[in-house]
Amino acid sequence: MSKKVHLFKRKESMNRPNLSSYLHQLAESVAQGNILLGQDEEAISLALSDTLTLEIEAEGQDKKRKGVQHSLELEIKW
Predict the structure, then answer these.
(1) How far apart are CA 61 and CA 71, in angstroms?
(2) Which of 39, 44, 74, 70 is nearest to 57 (CA)?
């Protein structure tokens, strides 16, 4: 069985316009066939194949005091 290697992980808070801009840049990178993640020493480049698989998952979790917390996961495999 192969071992999973984490190449890049990022978590940060941002407002809707900044998130939208980030996702637009990511979409442009996908269209060009190469995704650059991170900056400087931590930057990695991922070359995409012509055929990709997209998995989308939306969830809601009741946090009692805070109400329902939603999450949306987009996973691209190639």
Answers:
(1) 8
(2) 74
